[in-house]
């Protein structure tokens, strides 16, 4: 049931062992029975592990050594922009003036932190071409929902309650239709054409007086730039709808193109991706939202503003959609993003886009003759291959991904986007060297040879990892969610 080479923390436990030493209490004891009542007290103490400090340090250090992250190796996870997180960001985030403050402090005592956040908002306004930005959203999908709620509030403020539908491309991130649904809209799909771009004729077919917005990523999820974006904006705007920009792929166009200039009305950004905040394992994230002047009144409250030289939170916003998160965003991630922007500068951010696009196209052209390339034009920061040829030999994309583990690589995103059969979605980011890219390419080519010569080797992978191939159906349908002693 468990991997005996690495016992669980409960299996280190021995009665009476402790990993802490506390001074004697200098406050009076509390009678919990009297204060809380018996109904709120446990009948038995919690079954927590009893371990020494040395045991617990070794246990969690061992776990961290078995983990894979961007500091461990190449992480070509398409759509997720797993780029290197500069350690300077961590140094800045640990400065006492930032790490030892509390969000409930009086505004006058945290003016420096508020200035940083205001300057970050200013920078993001310039990068996106938006009129105003709020840092309150906790992550990307949260930013999507926030933007859609503002668009909904805008339509309703104008007495337009007919707009119940949000148009989403068939190559969109899965969170787009989900966010539209949670915001109370019906998601309507617009098809891609044979070039992997939004089909304008299909867009004209689905758009109408019930259209609230079009949700779009540009470059799209195939890593392709929507060259007819201005025409799309015209179609949607003439129908009375709004354009929402999913900022997940901003890494490809920083310094070269701005959503505001393309005609978008609202945008969210993933600071934990594009701007090098660490992410993974569920968080933390940061998904600031920017809007045009027309939507500014509907931003979440409070909004950080500068008034008479003082930074303050403006809560007097009668048309606001309200507060969407306690306090004002994930401060530590916002601070890391601010550090990155200040470190890179305008020219540095342009270089990020250049190298991200160069790296992706370099890898794509190296692999296109071995793995099918559905769309032949140059890509931006990521590209999508298909394992259809390998599937004909009995090897699935899933098998290829698991075989990559044997060679020490984190696999790319697989089976996404949904409009590419046996999809392999690769994003190298700008931070990887040519040697790293070449090593991954050579491994992918080697696996392609194995598919032909020894298909069983790939079908049964991984062979050299700590945990071998799992029964994924059972793991998904009958997960073990708690520790059970043997």
From TrEMBL:
UniProt KW Cell cycle keyword: no
EC top class, as a word: oxidoreductase
Gene3D superfamilies: 6.20.440.10, Aspartate Aminotransferase, domain 1, Type I PLP-dependent aspartate aminotransferase-like (Major domain)
GO molecular function: glycine binding; glycine dehydrogenase (decarboxylating) activity; pyridoxal phosphate binding
Catalytic activity: N(6)-[(R)-lipoyl]-L-lysyl-[glycine-cleavage complex H protein] + glycine + H(+) = N(6)-[(R)-S(8)-aminomethyldihydrolipoyl]-L-lysyl-[glycine-cleavage complex H protein] + CO2
GO BP term, example: glycine decarboxylation via glycine cleavage system
The enzyme's E.C. designation: 1.4.4.2
GO cellular component, one term: cytosol
PTM sites of type N6-(pyridoxal phosphate)lysine: 273
Coiled coil spans: none
Pfam families the UniProt entry points to: GcvP2_C (PF21478), GDC-P (PF02347)
Domain Glycine cleavage system P-protein N-terminal: 51-300
Keyword annotations: Oxidoreductase, Pyridoxal phosphate
Domain Glycine dehydrogenase C-terminal: from-to ranges: 353-453
Cofactor: pyridoxal 5'-phosphate
Superkingdom in the source lineage: Bacteria
Keyword Oxidoreductase: yes
Complex and partners: The glycine cleavage system is composed of four proteins: P, T, L and H. In this organism, the P 'protein' is a heterodimer of two subunits.
Protein task: The glycine cleavage system catalyzes the degradation of glycine. The P protein binds the alpha-amino group of glycine through its pyridoxal phosphate cofactor; CO(2) is released and the remaining methylamine moiety is then transferred to the lipoamide cofactor of the H protein.
Family: Belongs to the GcvP family. C-terminal subunit subfamily.
Protein name: Probable glycine dehydrogenase (decarboxylating) subunit 2
Protein encoded by which gene: gcvPB
């Amino acid at each position: 049931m468990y991997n005996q080479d690495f016992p669980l923390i409960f299996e280190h436990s021995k009665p009476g062992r402790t990993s802490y030493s506390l001074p004697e209490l200098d406050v009076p004891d509390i009678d919990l029975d009297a204060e809380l009542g018996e109904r709120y007290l446990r009948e038995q103490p919690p079954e927590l592990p009893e371990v020494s400090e040395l045991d617990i340090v070794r246990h969690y250090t061992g776990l961290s050594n078995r983990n894979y992250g961007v500091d461990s190796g190449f992480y070509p996870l398409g759509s997720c922009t797993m780029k290197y997180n500069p350690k300077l960001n961590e140094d800045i985030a640990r400065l006492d003036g930032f790490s030892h403050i509390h969000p409930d402090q009086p505004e006058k005592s945290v003016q420096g932190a508020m200035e940083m956040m205001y300057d970050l908002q200013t920078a993001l306004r310039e990068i996106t071409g938006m009129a105003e930005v709020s840092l309150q959203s906790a992550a990307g999908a949260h930013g999507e929902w926030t933007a859609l709620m503002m668009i909904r509030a805008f339509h309703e403020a104008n007495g337009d309650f007919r707009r119940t539908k949000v148009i989403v491309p068939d190559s969109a991130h899965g969170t787009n239709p989900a966010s539209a649904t949670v915001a109370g809209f019906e998601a309507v799909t617009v098809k891609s054409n044979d070039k992997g771009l939004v089909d304008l004729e299909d867009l004209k077919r689905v758009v109408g007086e019930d259209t609230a917005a079009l949700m779009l990523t540009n470059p799209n999820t195939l890593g392709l730039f929507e060259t007819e974006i201005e025409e799309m904006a015209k179609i949607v705007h003439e129908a009375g709808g709004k354009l929402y920009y999913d900022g997940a792929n901003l890494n490809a166009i920083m310094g070269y193109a701005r959503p505001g200039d393309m005609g978008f009305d609202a945008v969210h950004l993933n600071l934990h991706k594009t701007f090098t905040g660490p992410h993974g394992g569920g968080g933390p994230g940061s998904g600031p939202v920017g809007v045009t002047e027309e939507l500014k009144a509907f931003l979440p409250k409070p909004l950080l503003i500068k008034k008479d030289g003082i930074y303050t939170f403006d809560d007097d916003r009668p048309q606001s959609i309200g507060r969407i998160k306690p306090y004002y965003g994930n401060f530590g991630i916002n601070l890391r993003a601010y550090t990155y922007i200040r470190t890179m500068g305008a020219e540095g951010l342009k270089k990020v886009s250049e190298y991200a696009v160069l790296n992706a196209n370099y890898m794509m052209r190296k692999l296109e003759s071995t793995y099918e390339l559905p769309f032949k034009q140059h890509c931006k920061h990521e590209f999508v291959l298909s394992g259809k040829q390998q599937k004909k030999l009995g090897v699935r994309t899933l098998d290829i991904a698991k075989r990559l583990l044997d060679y020490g690589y984190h696999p790319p995103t697989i089976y996404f986007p949904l409009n590419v059969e046996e999809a392999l979605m690769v994003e190298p980011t700008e931070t990887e060297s040519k040697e790293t890219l070449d090593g991954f390419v050579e491994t992918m080519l080697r696996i392609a040879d194995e598919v032909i010569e020894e298909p069983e080797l790939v079908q049964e992978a991984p062979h050299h990892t700590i945990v071998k191939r799992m029964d994924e159906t059972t793991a998904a349908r009958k997960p073990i969610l708690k520790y059970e002693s043997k």
